[in-house]
Input
Amino acid sequence: MMANKVYIIAYYTFKEILKSKILINVFFAGLGLMLVTYVATEFTYGVPERVALDFGLGTLSLSSLAISLFLGATLLSKEIDSRTVYMVISRPVPRFAFILGKILGLLGIQALNVFLLSLMTLITVSVLGGNITPLIYWAIGFIFLESILLLLVVVLVSLVANNILSTLLSLVILVLGHAVKETQSLTFVKNRGFFKIVLEAYHFILPGFYKLNLKEFVIYKTSLPFDYLLSSLIYGVAYSGFLLALTIYLFNKKNID
Amino acid sequence: MIKLQSLRKVFKSDLLTQPFVALDDVSFDVPEGSMVGFLGANGAGKTTSLKIIMDFIRPTSGAVIFSSKLGSSKLEIFKNIGFLPERPYFYPTLTGHDFLLFMGRLSEMTTTSINHEIQVWAPRFKIDHALKRELKTYSKGMLQRIGFLATILHHPKIVILDEPLSGLDPIGRKELKDVIIEVHKEGKTVFFSSHIVPDVEEICDRVVFLKDGKLAFDGSVGSLITDSLAFDYVVSVKADFSFNPQTPFKSVTILPNNLKKYIVESGNKDRFLVEMIERKYIILSIEMNKPTLEEIFYQTRGTV
Ligand SMILES: Nc1ncnc2c1ncn2[C@@H]1O[C@H](COP(=O)(O)OP(=O)(O)OP(=O)(O)O)[C@@H](O)[C@H]1O
Ligand SMILES: [Mg+2]
Output
């Protein structure tokens, strides 16, 4: 019964976003990208399939992060501002089901986006004679996971900040989450205990997005240790679960007016 | 059905502004099977009370108690409530039909029974022709109607409406009032807020009156009228043209054929009548000069 209500909310959320035609834009961006890739490969020596893969995964990653950032920031606030949320939570629908439904609906859009763009990428790569390695699938999966994690960050922040601020703040968290890896390996930081502690503390609290970034590996390597992949996967899922729980907890306490 | 117990709500918007007391010790009861009008001027706290009842916001102190007839868990209780928010706004890209399906399914109805209810009610609300259209093409009145339809679709035991009649033209108001009366006759409890006093007076048996966040009155429409003001009486007598009563009166209208209409305060009524009888004048009629609820509302500015 409850799963059914979550599904209904997710279904109508999905439908509403789909009607806003965002995916059509994404689709044409993808097409344009394939064209650009084709042109670019004409001018590069030797490794056109690598360029195609680089471009493809890059677009995929950018578009799904953008969807999370921009649609995630308004996912709940739009409902609250326009008071449509009252229609739903005055029904026998607990607030967690509402949140879950909204998030799953948007993730449906994400999934569709990932599916379309990665299909285009994979086709382009194989047409150009590249090898589709399992690591490519992992990379695509991790891009999806990264966009889920970012979405949950945005939704959580949007409960306490306005739309623009939550997009910006989440963008900062995203960038830091990628930069934290490089910063850690700087000798400057390594030699100073204080910075090390700050970084480690940061690491402990904020999401290490870099763990989900396989793009570099995928382009220059064909495989990674399974342990590494598994631990990153677990990290991403566990962190997402934690953010979701926190969001539900805060939304349950929130005064909606 | 629903009991509010010493509700208090203080809004603290930010550090610089003073905390604002929107509700102060508000207690009242919405009895089962009644039709209760919830009156109060703009900003009196009606919407705030309804939001607390619906658990959208939490009271600073006090509680809302639901009758066990509505259910024992929040989900069960909410299955038996039909709520229409103030100035309702719905997903603009959904069609009317999709919207009703969405709402009905959230209230655990089957698609078949939703479609059945739509067939029954949509023509009554004159929106059957527009059900395939997206809600963003609906007029304000149409949105209000389809919102009301969604509110009663699942046969709730209590219907809670926040200003359901605002934004409707006179004909639309009449139609919606008729449906509210019909829904009430089916045995549902109805609780609705309004500042259109004649509407409340017309269809409600009880009123709850809020003023500046405080309960000003709670009781039957009739007793609000009898309690709040001392009445005047209109006494028509047949008397000599020159007659001037000893008992004080407010005004007199002189009509042809020695007819006179006196307006007498209720405190002087008996003395006035005795004087008439002693003088053997003919009393043709005595009427109570009842003020309307609206007159009370505006005379007292909501203080009863
Ligand atoms: N979130 C809030 N923060 C601060 N003040 C608020 C908030 N919500 C409501 N108020 C104040 O509480 C008071 C009561 O508002 P409420 O909406 O309950 O009035 P109402 O009786 O429904 O009025 P109306 O007839 O205009 O709809 C108003 O003065 C309003 O400004
Ligand atoms: Mg109001």
